[in-house]
């Protein structure tokens, strides 16, 4: 089931539906800690942050929270595998 959530999240990400992909990666991670789910969720958070940043400054605080979440995912990846270079 975790793998299916991750695959669905990949599809949502490719469709630039970043919030849905973040939600699905989160579901996948809750079921099974997976380096790729953490990495992809971090990328989705960053993508969502920068998709609005240059247009609407009102979202700045929200975007910074996404960047923080992305950084936390990188730390979580390293806690699973300290040799994982993408973390």
Mean pLDDT: 79
What string, H for helix and E for strand, traces the elements in order? HHHH
Shape from CA axes?
globular
Could you tell me the CATH topology label. Serine Threonine Protein Phosphatase 5, Tetratricopeptide repeat
Number of domains: 1
User: Regarding CATH, which class?
Assistant: Mainly Alpha
N→C terminal distance: 24 Å
Number of strands: 0
Q: Helical residue percent? A: over 70%
What does this structure look like?
This protein is mostly helical. The chain has a single domain, classed as Alpha Horseshoe (Serine Threonine Protein Phosphatase 5, Tetratricopeptide repeat). 77% of the residues lie in helices and 0% in strands. It is built from four helices and no strands. It has helices at 2-14, 18-31, 35-53, 60-80. Helix 2 packs antiparallel against helix 3 (35-53) and helix 3 packs antiparallel against helix 4. It starts with a helix and ends in a 7-residue tail after the last helix.
How would you briefly describe this protein structure?
With 87 residues, the chain is an all-alpha fold. The chain contains 4 helices and no strands. The longest helix is centred in the last third of the chain and has 21 residues, at 60-80.
């Amino acid at each position: 089931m975790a793998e299916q959530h991750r695959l669905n999240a990949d599809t949502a990400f490719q469709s630039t539906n970043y919030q849905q992909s973040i939600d699905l990666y989160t579901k996948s991670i809750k079921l099974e800690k997976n380096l790729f789910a953490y990495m992809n969720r971090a990328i989705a958070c960053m993508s969502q942050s920068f998709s609005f940043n240059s247009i609407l400054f009102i979202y700045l605080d929200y975007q910074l929270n996404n960047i923080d979440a992305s950084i936390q995912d990188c730390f979580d990846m390293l806690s699973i595998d300290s040799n994982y270079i993408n973390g």
